[in-house]
Amino acid sequence: MEAMQLQPVKANLIYPSRINRTLGLSQQQDIIDVEPILSRREVKRLPFIEANTKKVSFQHLKDDCIVPVFSKDNEITISHPNFIETMWEAANKVFSNESIDMPEIRVSHIIKGRTPEAIHKSVKDLLEEDKTIYYERMMFCFEIPSIHEDINGNRLNLTIGGVRAYNHENLYSKKGMEKFKIFIGFKNMVCCNMCVSTDGFKSELKVIDVHGLLNAAIQLFQDYNVAKHLYYMGAFKDNYMTEHQFAQFLGKSRLYQYLPPEQKKKLPQMLMTDTQTSIVAKSFYNDDNFSLPDNQGEISMWNVYNLLTGANKSSYIDNFLDRAYNATLLADGLNKALYENCEYSWFIQ
Q1: What span, in angstroms and rounded, lies between the C-alpha atoms of 292 and 311?
Q2: Which pLDDT belongs to residue 44?
Q3: What DSSP line would sit under 214-272, residue for residue?
Q4: Strand, coil or helix: 195
Q5: What whole-number distance in Å separates Cα of residue 98 and Cα of residue 126?
Q6: What is the pLDDT of residues 255-276, one digit of tens each?
Q7: Residue 160 CB neighbour total at 10 angstroms
Q8: Beta strand residue intervals within the chain, DSSP E
Q9: Looking at per-residue confidence, does 315 or 16 come out higher?
Q10: Are 272 and 308 in contact (CB under 8 A)?
């Protein structure tokens, strides 16, 4: 795929009620060129992930970072910029009439090296041009604000993104299928929490090149049911959990980690850590947007869902999307358990 630059795309606004249309795209369409980056003032907002990450620019990844290779055959990996460009390209093919924002990129686990010419220099004598870096883990997302919905006073923008973690690759072998995580879902603009659903997430996408990545991304975007995802999230605001049920959930969440394997197999998966459980407990009383309302003994499932996705911000990049998806399953399961006996009932009984 030819190198290309990213720029904001401006188009006619099309709202959720109008997005059920036949896209009719061929998965074999050629890659299109994108114009050079336009200057743009960034608006400060909460990060979509925290943990030990930092924000970087696309240009930094492209100009200042080396690209790892598979050591046995010296074949280059699909780089972070190539990944972002390919997902950007897929989004423009599927959502050609929409307004697409610039990607927000966060990285962690920097890998430092040096050029061959500087191999014998001491650290204090190294010049900037002697140093090499790349990031083991990278996550990005970009919003499509022309497709949005309001739930309980919170604006949700359609959002696309992905994760690349080189620690999930065997870089000491020959080049083979490379692994990615990609998603399409919604970002809650009040808190920048990610809402990820079943049909909008690929936990382990394996491809050999960027063309395979492009085709898989297009297929995911076309298969994603926006209306269904919004419907299930909208139902959360009309259902409530008592303070006692919430306390039961927190206690059972801690017990879950230490259950005998045979008993744990009979329960649905719960990926939240003890640290994240503590974050949820603290936020239950102190969160600015989703805490227990004053003088009330119950909390909406919409608030519970956002407490879970908010705690997920403390996850490392390579676990973030899996836990975001698990938070959706957990909230939906708890919502059902309020009214019927189901596999999630154990958490609140």
Answers
A1: 16
A2: 60
A3: HHHHHHHHHH--HHHHHHHHHHHTT-EEEHHHHHHHHHHHHHHTTS-HHHHHTS-----
A4: strand
A5: 47
A6: 999 999 999 999 999 999 999 9
A7: 27
A8: 54-56, 69-70, 75-76, 104-114, 131-151, 154-165, 178-188, 193-195, 201-207, 240-242, 298-300
A9: 315
A10: yes
